[in-house]
């Protein structure tokens, strides 16, 4: 028995194969490909994998990319399953106005973050941050209800928007400074502090709403860029979506 977890974002496909569909299962293999290289998976890294018994994936990139992944999975006899956000799953209650419209990556990451927190101690409110092509900042109360979240552009989108809408800003990425004195540093610092400020504001909202200090968990391919500039205490977690997929798989594929 083995379990294949797939996380497809706006830029890359990440995958991990585990010995079983449950948290704590042994990691057998893992990898990542840019979306333009998906069509090389079956003849490349996936050709060396044993046939997975179960597969569960999280995708935000759209149906065209999903079809390409399905074509690559034809080397195995396994039925692909993809997460769709629901009203409740794995101990998390979805407070979105239309629960199924919540991005699957956001839903899975929150499930992973909450179970990670519960494995370490008592339940507390949470702020869950994903920093990638876009940035999301989610609020969860101590009972496990998703209260709502923020979406804002990631660093790259911010810079491209400024370059396309403002003359003279075609400059290389700079450094984060408290007091930027050149345009490159001003652009990089502005984007970084915008994200940090959104996280800080959500932490304030959760603190006031729940009457307790929230646990702040950050993930995403660009999370490491934000780490030095954060003004609130947080934990940086590499594979939060895989943590969530394992929790969901435990319930969906229980023997």
UniProtKB/TrEMBL annotation:
Q: Which UniProt keywords apply?
A: ATP-binding, Coenzyme A biosynthesis, Cytoplasm, Kinase, Nucleotide-binding, Potassium, Transferase
Q: Where is the signal peptide?
A: none
Query: What are its E.C. numbers?
Result: 2.7.1.33
GO molecular function terms listed in the Swiss-Prot or TrEMBL record: ATP binding; pantothenate kinase activity
From the UniProt record, list the reaction(s) this protein catalyses.
(R)-pantothenate + ATP = (R)-4'-phosphopantothenate + ADP + H(+)
Instruction: Give the domain of life.
Output: Bacteria
The UniProt entry annotates the active site at 105
The entry's cellular-component GO terms read: cytoplasm
Pathway(s) served: Cofactor biosynthesis; coenzyme A biosynthesis; CoA from (R)-pantothenate: step 1/5
Binding positions (substrate): 96, 103-106, 183
| Gene3D superfamilies xrefs | 3.30.420.40
Instruction: State its location(s).
Output: Cytoplasm
The Swiss-Prot or TrEMBL record lists the needed cofactor(s) as: NH4(+); K(+)
According to its UniProt entry, one GO biological process term is: coenzyme A biosynthetic process
Q: How is the cofactor bound?
A: A monovalent cation. Ammonium or potassium.
Residues that bind ATP: 7-14, 133
Please give the function described in this protein's UniProt entry. Answer: Catalyzes the phosphorylation of pantothenate (Pan), the first step in CoA biosynthesis.
PANTHER family (UniProt xref): TYPE III PANTOTHENATE KINASE (PTHR34265)
The UniProt subunit note reads as follows: Homodimer.
Q: Which family does it belong to?
A: Belongs to the type III pantothenate kinase family.
Q: By what name is this protein known?
A: Type III pantothenate kinase
**What is the organism of origin for this protein?**
Rhodoferax koreensis
């Amino acid at each position: 028995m083995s379990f294949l977890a797939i996380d497809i974002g706006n830029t890359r496909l990440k995958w991990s194969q585990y010995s079983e569909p449950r948290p704590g299962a042994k990691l057998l293999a893992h990898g990542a490909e840019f979306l333009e290289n998906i069509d090389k998976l079956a003849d490349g890294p996936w050709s060396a994998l044993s046939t997975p018994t179960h597969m569960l994936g999280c995708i935000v990139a759209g149906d065209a990319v999903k079809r390409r992944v399905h074509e690559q999975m034809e080397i195995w006899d396994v039925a692909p399953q993809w997460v769709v956000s629901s009203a409740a799953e794995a101990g998390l209650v979805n407070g979105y106005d239309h629960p199924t419209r919540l991005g699957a990556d956001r839903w899975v990451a929150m499930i992973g973050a909450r179970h990670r927190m519960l494995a370490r101690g008592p339940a507390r409110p949470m702020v869950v941050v994903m920093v990638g092509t876009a940035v999301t900042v989610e609020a969860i109360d101590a009972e496990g209800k998703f209260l709502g979240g923020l979406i804002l552009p990631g660093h790259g989108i911010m810079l491209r928007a400024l370059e396309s809408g403002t003359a003279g800003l075609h400059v290389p990425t700079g450094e984060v400074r408290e007091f930027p004195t050149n345009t490159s540093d001003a652009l990089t610092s502005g984007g970084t502090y915008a994200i940090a400020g959104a996280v800080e504001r959500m932490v304030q909202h959760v603190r006031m709403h729940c009457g307790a200090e929230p646990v702040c968990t950050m993930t995403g391919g660009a999370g490491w860029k934000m780490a030095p500039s954060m003004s609130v205490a947080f934990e940086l977690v590499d594979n939060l979506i895989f943590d969530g997929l394992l929790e969901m798989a435990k319930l969906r594929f229980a023997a």
